[in-house]
Design goal:
This protein has about 300 residues and is α+β, with helices and mostly antiparallel strands. The chain is built from twelve helices and eight strands. The strands form three sheets. Strands 5-4-7-8 form a four-stranded mixed beta sheet. It has a two-stranded antiparallel sheet with strand order 1-2. Strands 3-6 form a two-stranded antiparallel sheet. Helix 9 links the parallel strand 4 and strand 5.
C-alpha cells in the first residue's frame, strides 16, 4: 500500500506543480487539459491535486508505519507475542481502511464529474488516480480481519456517503462563480508582441492549405501564447469560439461545437485533435511541413 500511495502522491504533486506554475501536464489523451484546467480542478483557490498529494502522502506514511509494525510482530514470533504491538497493528489496518475509503469516495465523485460534467473527457491522470484509490481501498479492506471488517463497515459506508455529499457541495464548476456572474467581456483580438519569421509564416500557410484549424478564445492566455509562438504576420488558421464576446452561459461558436472543442487552444490536424499549446516543430511534424527552421531562414528575415 505504501508504494501505491507514494505513486499517487508523486502524480498529484506533479499535477499541482504544473497547475501552480502555469505549465501543462504531458498527456497522450485529449481530455487531460479539459479536466485539469476546469473549475473542478481547484478547491478554495488551491489545486485539487495539492490536496490529493497530501492525502496520498498521509496514507503512504500510515502504510509504511503499519508495515514496520507487522515486521516487528513477525520477528517476535508466536513465542514472544506483544499484545500492545498487535493492538497497534490492528488500529493501523483499520485507520488505513478508513483513509482509503475517503480516497475512494473522492475518486468516485471525480469520476462522476469527468463522465457527466465534463462530457466524458479522457483524462489519464484522473483515471490513474482513481485506479490507485480503489486499489488501496480493496487492499485496505482485504487486510482486515473478519471482526474488524464487520465493525468497520457501517462507519466506512457513512464516511463514503458523507465524503461524496461534501464533494458535491464544495466542488463546483467555477470556484469564483460569484465574481463572474455579471461579468461580460467584449471581443478584442490580442496585440502580438513577437514578430513572425519566414519559417512560422510558411508553416502557418501550410497549415491553412492543408485544412488544419486552431480553435481558441480571445480571453485565453494559452491561445495568445500560441499565437505569439508564430508571431505577428503569420496567418494562422484560427477559429474564434467567442466572436461576439463572452459572459457566463455564452455557448461556443457553431464551428467549435461541431469540432467538439473541450479546451483552449485545440488544434485539429488531419483529423487528429490536440489540446494545449504546441511547438512549431510538432505542428510541422504532424502536418507534414518540410520547411527548415534554420539559420538561413533566420537570415532571410533580416532582409
Amino acid at each position: 500500500m505504501g508504494g501505491l500511495a507514494s505513486a499517487g502522491a508523486l502524480e498529484s504533486s506533479y499535477l499541482a506543480f504544473q497547475k501552480l506554475t502555469g505549465g501543462e501536464a504531458a498527456c497522450p489523451l485529449s481530455g487531460c487539459q479539459t479536466a485539469l484546467n476546469s473549475g473542478y480542478a481547484e478547491l478554495f483557490g488551491i489545486p485539487l491535486s495539492a490536496y490529493g498529494a497530501v492525502a496520498y502522502g498521509m496514507v503512504a506514511a500510515l502504510a509504511f508505519g503499519a508495515a514496520k509494525t507487522q515486521t516487528e510482530l513477525v520477528e517476535r514470533g508466536d513465542e514472544n507475542r506483544d499484545a500492545e504491538l498487535e493492538s497497534k497493528y490492528g488500529k493501523s489496518r483499520v485507520l488505513l481502511f478508513f483513509a482509503s475509503t475517503g480516497l475512494a469516495a473522492v475518486s468516485s465523485y471525480l469520476l462522476y464529474v469527468l463522465a457527466f460534467k465534463l462530457g466524458g473527457a479522457e483524462c489519464l491522470y484522473c483515471l490513474t488516480s482513481a485506479a490507485i484509490s480503489f486499489t488501496l481501498f480493496g487492499i485496505g479492506f482485504a487486510g482486515l480481519s473478519g471482526k474488524e471488517s464487520a465493525n468497520a463497515a457501517p462507519p466506512a459506508v457513512a464516511l463514503y456517503i458523507i465524503t461524496v455529499a461534501l464533494m458535491g457541495l464544495v466542488l463546483t464548476e467555477s470556484p469564483d462563480a460569484s465574481s463572474t456572474a455579471g461579468l461580460r467581456l467584449a471581443y478584442a483580438p490580442p496585440q502580438l508582441e513577437q514578430k513572425s519569421t519566414a519559417y512560422s509564416r510558411s508553416l502557418a500557410k501550410h497549415l491553412s492549405e492543408t485544412g488544419a484549424k486552431m480553435y481558441g478564445a480571445f480571453w485565453c492566455s494559452h491561445c495568445i501564447e500560441q499565437k505569439e509562438t508564430f508571431g505577428a504576420g503569420a496567418e494562422i488558421p484560427y477559429v474564434e469560439c467567442f466572436p461576439n464576446g463572452w459572459e457566463r452561459g455564452t455557448p461556443v461558436a457553431d464551428a467549435c461545437s461541431a469540432a467538439n472543442v473541450e479546451g483552449f487552444p485545440t488544434w485539429v490536424i488531419d483529423g487528429k485533435k490536440l489540446e494545449g499549446e504546441q511547438t512549431l516543430e510538432k505542428l510541422a511534424e504532424l502536418s507534414g511541413f518540410r520547411g527548415e527552421n534554420d539559420a538561413a531562414s533566420m537570415i532571410a528575415d533580416l532582409f
